[in-house]
Amino acid sequence: MSEVIVPERTSVSPAPIVAWTPLGENAILVRSACDAIPAKVPVAVDGNPRNRAQTMVLSWRRPGAEPLAATGFLCLAPAPSVDNSGTGALLIGRPGRPLRLILAAKPQPLQTFLSELAEDAGQAFPSVVDGLLEVLLTGAPNPRRLRAVAMLLQTVARPGGFVEVMGALEGDGIFLQGWTSDFAAGRLKLLIAHGGLSPAHLEAGTFERGDLGEGARGFFGLLEDCQVQQPGEIERLYFRGSDGWRALEVYERYVLLEPITVPGHLRDGLARGTAPQTTTDRLRRASQRFDGRDTVCLLEEPVRAGIDSVTVVEDTGVLIIGWLFDPERRVDAVTLRSGGQSCAVDRLWTRVQRPDVTAAFMEDPRFGPALAARRNSHGFIVFAPKLLPEPGQPLHLAFEVQGTGPAFLPLEPNRAQARRALERVLGLLDPRSSTANAVVERQIAPALQAAEIVPPRAVETLDVGPFDAEAPLGLVIGLDHRQRELSALFALLAMDPEVRPLPIAIAAPSESFDRVGAEARRLARFYGLSVRLVAVEGVEDACDALEAGVRACRFQTVVLLSGAAQIRMPGWLGRLERAYRARGGQCVASPTLLFEDDSIRWAGAWLEGEGASRRIANRFVGYPLDAVGNLGPMEVAAGASECCVLSRAAFIEVGGFARNYFTTAEKGLDLCLKLRMAGSPSLWVPDVEVYAVDDIETAAPHAGALARLADRTSFDRRWALAISNMKG
Q1: Fewest 10 Å CB contacts: which of 196, 373, 470, 559?
Q2: What InterPro entries has UniProt attached to this entry (predicted)?
Q3: Which of 289, 174, 177, 184 is nearest to 232 (CA)?
Q4: In angstroms, what CA-CA distances link 628 with 565, 566, 570?
Q5: What is the C-alpha to C-alpha distance for residues 327 and 109, in angstroms, rounded to an integer?
């Protein structure tokens, strides 16, 4: 047939008024009748032949109608102008004479339009609807078209089976299982009713079921490219069978699978069913997911793994200690997973010697020959930052093994606070080994620095005497968990006329508050001191207690005194305060700190070296006290937090002590550098002398060297660049 041309001019003649309904913003559905019309015609909008489009026409015979209206038809047309500037006419080109139609003044609701269509089409309605569905589903779908499709499908779709089992597969769609007699295995287009209607694909396999009638088969597969996220949203599924549209109903008592069990159901389906190779490959890849089992132990390859401990460090990440036996290097990657989170731990871990693993497999005939090289580096320690198990999502390791795909190892984590969890790891390491240093630098230090540790918090205060929390000057004493002798300290405070009238805040861990508080109350009353006792939660060391004590009062100027410090002579505070005032209160004034044998523990922290090699060092450590001579107050790189005078406002402004260190040494150094950067440099006052007990800060004393290495590593990462550019 030659192309039908819509003429530029058409004589005006009476035209029928036709029913129509909108389908989206740019199209309408029109119903009318004529004597004859082809399956594809051009249509001009508002009588303008230049505004035209090709459209498919669906027609049916109308028995008993007049010859000029013997053929009913349905077509899509471009929507008329929104601003009503058009004529409201459609011009349809057809052989012979074009057909001119006048759109009704108001569109019909879709349901009304379809009802009248069914009445007019009679027995042809199902085939008309089937063709209309094909037209509506061609091209990009829009909500209004899909709503029309949903109404049509409810009318014409015949029963096609049931969905009996469903389950979500994280990131890969929804698993379906049921029965049908109307589609073959492979990739199938579907429409899903879920309140609305949306397209999807089903990668499906089929299997025989003895409980079904002739021609019906079981099916299983994955629903993909789907807007539906949860199985419970699915109401019905429509698909095009060999003889028209069919509906898969969701069985009222369908089985809802836990996501972790879905891979196993896919594997069962593949084992008993059939599908085209592309579908089989797709479903097999999806089935290779963690299902809660240890599948590493089932491998035929010489690969085994074990876990010693898994700790979820609060708000920080996951710390894992374990081993991987892989003498032939079959494992290409190891990934930690929980829900949608993952971390490639084999790129981060530190391998450690595990001769016990070697010994365990040496006598096993399956693995012994692979151990000819006698490698012992089977162990690993790794910190996975910012990966926190999601509620209801299991934590596991995935091993990519050459030739077999992934294998899985489920993990059962404990939870712990960052510092305590990492201290336990330090206790497992030999501080003399290079491996221990690598673990500290690559795992422990980054984990501690990444930790979001809750700051210490004052939970209770108790005042003894007329305590003035708003005093211009006040003393804050911070105690850690170790037992301290308070009687000598209180006696020395009471004997010093410059200290005796000051308000004194004593901050102690809440766990030891009863014991410390009772002793402090007795001594405060005996000596007539004004004391506030502060019970603190979250104390790891004296710096934590000092911080809570500072925040529990509102002194303008605070004197920090660690529980490790011991006063050596009266007048110490007056001289420190005068040096502080001489600098306008814009500094941190610290005394000389001594060991108990009167040798120097701290006499100023000084900048040494130049550029990238510049560092902060304590020059006089171990020297006799006479080595400093009769020096006057002088500015240094950093002060000593064990004993100092500083502005409370400055302390609060810089955020107080950092909690991401094991020892108080780096905490104090970090604080003083923050204050220096904020305009409060450190001042050393040599003629004021205070004892400071050299305590081991970690829970495992033999790990003290590693704790100091971790702190130094963390400190250098944070401050090396700033120190290299400091003047002085």
Answers
A1: 373
A2: Nucleotide-diphossugar_trans
A3: 174
A4: 20, 20, 20
A5: 72
> CA 119, CA 496: separation in Å to the nearest integer?
107
Are the C-beta atoms of 418 and 313 separated by less than 8 Å?
yes
**Do 152 and 114 contact (CB within 8 A), yes or no?**
yes
Residues 486 and 520: beta-carbon distance below 8 Å = yes
* Predicted local distance difference test score (pLDDT) of residue 110: 83
Residue of higher predicted confidence among 448 and 80 = 448
pLDDT at 369 over 70: no
Residue 421: its H or E element: helix 418-428
Structure-block tokens of residue 147: 């709503």
Residue given tokens 């492979």 in the structure block: 186
- Residues recorded for the chain: 728
Q: Tokens for 651?
A: 């302390």
Q: Is 593 exposed, middle or buried (0-12, 13-18, 19+ CB in 10 A)?
A: buried
| pLDDT tens by residue, 490-539 | 999 999 999 999 999 999 999 999 999 999 999 999 999 999 999 999 99
pLDDT at residue 474 tops 90:
yes
Calculate the dihedral angle through the C-alpha atoms of 706, 707, 711, 712, rounding to the nearest 10 degrees. -30
Q: How far apart are CA 176 and CA 257, in angstroms?
A: 10
- Say how far apart CA 101 and CA 103 lie, in whole Å: 6
DSSP label of 84:
S
Quick one: how many helices (H) and strands (E) in the chain?
16, 36
Tens of pLDDT, residue by residue over 12-22, are 457 889 999 88
CA-angle at 466, arms to 525 and 546, nearest 5°? 80
Distance separating alpha carbons of residues 15 and 38, to the nearest angstrom = 19
β-sheet bridge partners, residue 190:
200
The model's pTM: 0.69
> CA torsion sign, 198 to 199 to 200 to 202?
positive
For residue 467, what are its two tokens? 């305590």
What is the rounded average pLDDT of the residues 691-698? Answer: 64
User: Which amino acid is present at 491?
Assistant: A
* DSSP code string of 674-704: HHHHTT--EEEEEEEEEEE-----SSSGGGH
Strand duo 503-509 + 530-537: pairing: parallel
